[in-house]
């Protein structure tokens, strides 16, 4: 569909390809950060707070 349109300026297609690839890279980085970094850190914080709370209750 979009291939029927003329480029707004010479090289616009190449610029669009670069922008699309950067968007894919950013999306991949965000997903990676959530799965590899944030989820384990959240689990560690939860287990720490649970252990800390139970230690306070037993005092």
From TrEMBL:
Residue spans crossing the bilayer: 18-37
Keywords, comma-separated and alphabetical: Membrane, Transmembrane, Transmembrane helix
Name under which the protein is recorded: Uncharacterized protein
């Amino acid at each position: 569909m979009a291939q029927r349109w003329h480029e707004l300026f010479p090289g616009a297609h190449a610029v669009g390809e670069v922008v699309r690839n950067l968007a894919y890279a950013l999306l991949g980085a965000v997903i990676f950060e959530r799965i590899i970094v944030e989820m384990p850190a959240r689990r560690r914080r939860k287990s720490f707070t649970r252990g800390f709370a139970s230690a306070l209750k037993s005092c």
